[in-house]
Automatic annotation (TrEMBL):
An example molecular function term from Gene Ontology annotations: mRNA binding
NADP is among the record's keywords: no
Domain of life: Bacteria
Family: Belongs to the HicA mRNA interferase family.
Gene3D superfamilies linked: Hypothetical protein
Alphabetical UniProt keywords: Endonuclease, Hydrolase, Nuclease, RNA-binding, Stress response, Toxin-antitoxin system
Keyword presence, Electron transport: no
Name of the protein described by the UniProt record: Addiction module toxin, HicA family
């Protein structure tokens, strides 16, 4: 199984925005996102922490219905910008 990178909440939000997710609201340090065109995908709640835990990141990837490899490619794209 591929290793997940250590990323912040802001970087995770940027990755999911590349997948088409939109921010619908923020309450405190948590951002709620949904996919407007694909209603079968679950809504995501992402904390704006400096470092996201591996379990939470894995759950977000699973809820977004993408593979870890796809997510790693998105992270590399975000970090290279």
């Amino acid at each position: 199984m591929p290793k997940l990178p250590s990323i912040s909440g802001k970087q995770a939000i940027n990755c999911f925005e590349k997948l088409g997710y939109k921010t619908i609201r923020q309450k405190g340090s948590h951002v709620r996102m949904h996919h407007p065109s694909d209603k079968t995908r679950k809504a995501l709640t992402i904390p704006l922490h400096k470092k996201l835990g591996k379990g939470l990141l894995r759950k977000l990837i699973r809820d977004a219905e993408i593979s870890i490899e796809e997510f790693q490619k998105l992270i590399l794209l975000i970090l290279s910008e």
